[in-house]
Design brief:
The protein has 48 residues and is α+β, with helices and mostly antiparallel strands. The chain has one helix at residues 32-46; strands at 2-3, 6-7.
Length: 48
């Protein structure tokens, strides 16, 4: 995936939660393809 025009990756094995109050700005938006890939990886990690 690309964030701010730079290649990036999501590490589904390093899941954590963050309060919405701590999120102060949005870096970028995932493409539909990248979102589906991230969702799939998370489901695999959680055994869903």
């Amino acid at each position: 995936m690309t964030i701010n025009r730079r290649p990036s990756k999501a590490q589904a094995n390093l899941l954590t939660t963050v309060s919405k109050l701590r999120v102060t700005s949005k870096l970028d938006t995932l493409s539909r393809t990248d979102l589906v890939a991230v969702e799939s990886a998370i489901q695999i990690q959680l055994g869903l």
